[in-house]
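hi!! sorry for the late reply, been swamped w classes. u asked for the two structures so here they r. pasted raw, havent cleaned anything up. first the sequence of the first protein and right below it the tokens
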Amino acid sequence: MTDANRTWAGTSLSDRRARRRRQLLDAGLDLLGTPEGPAVSVRAVCRSAGLTERYFYESFTDRDEFVVAAYDHVVTLAHRTLVDAVSLAGRDPSRRAEAAVSAFVTLILDDPRQGRVLLLAPLAEEPLRRIGAQRLPVFADLVREQLSDRLDEGDRAMTATALVGGLANVFASYLGGTLDVTRERLTAHCVRLVLAAEGLHS
């Protein structure tokens, strides 16, 4: 039996490590997603997670690697949320647009920490500035796949990139408090933007 599989109190070492990593990432969500802006240090993360620094360095080389991991955790969640919403909405473009926007709004507003990590933290955290730009095409590709094939590939790519960038700025402004509208109006407006990109709304 390997050390990773050796059990203690009914759980293996690898399971305990995974649990500690999740605790740290949960703490990262709290600290990166504060309304006041990111406040991440190794000490603060460990204190929030209830773990010692030894366990921090068990999973992460340094603070910057941790910040990127916490950010990527939310990116993965957001992408999966959008993929699931679109796949369950059927083939109708209007339903797909409404489902995707509603799911994303729920993700970032029901737990605003997630929205702040995804959209605001890259503006304040140096390790995320380059990473954030690298992750954007993942969402643009998803949008591009939903656009009408009446557009050629170049137009679809440009439209998807512009749409993702525009929507990200709208949501970031809302989360940052500079856009004072209701959640319902925010959702309806963003759905109209998506449908306009499809040429389905004037």
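now the second protein. again sequence first, tokens right under
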Amino acid sequence: MAALLATLALVGCVPARLPALEATLAAQPSATAALTQWCAAGHLADPATIRALADRTPRPAPDSVRAALGVGATEPLGFRHVRLACGNVVLSDAQNWFVPARLTPAMNTTLAQTDTPFGTVVTPLHFTRARLAARRGRMAECPAGTVLSHRAVLRRPDGLAISLVVECYTRASVQTPPASLR
């Protein structure tokens, strides 16, 4: 009986919509595109537009980030810490290190001066996504309350890495929206 109660308690820890969010994210190379689809399906905002609420405070890249991006210690990296929101709902908190030299000047300007999500900005590069890690719950880099964590590298078609991202999906991303938003 105790084992059954423990199992039921653990099942209650996984939000019901989490598997659907995981499937939506897995179907797209861009988290931005996946979250736009998720936002539209959940009627979180009209139009279903994802905004990157950016904190541009620079952070040095750990050696592991530089290794994953295939850059040396002196190669300049860009950094964005963003909360991706649809309407008033923050869906994820993400840290993104990127290689400015592998993007166009216009892309770098847009990233520096706007709240346009990274995935939207670099879409013309036709990038692919290589997931390095995924975890239900919080990775060390994620804030409390994270229900799903991803670490991934985005690559151009020529194989060069353009970005390493750590994505932390919020509990709000998997809650059923109130009737007033549906």
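hope this helps!! also noticed smth abt the second:
The first strand starts at residue 50 and ends at 55.
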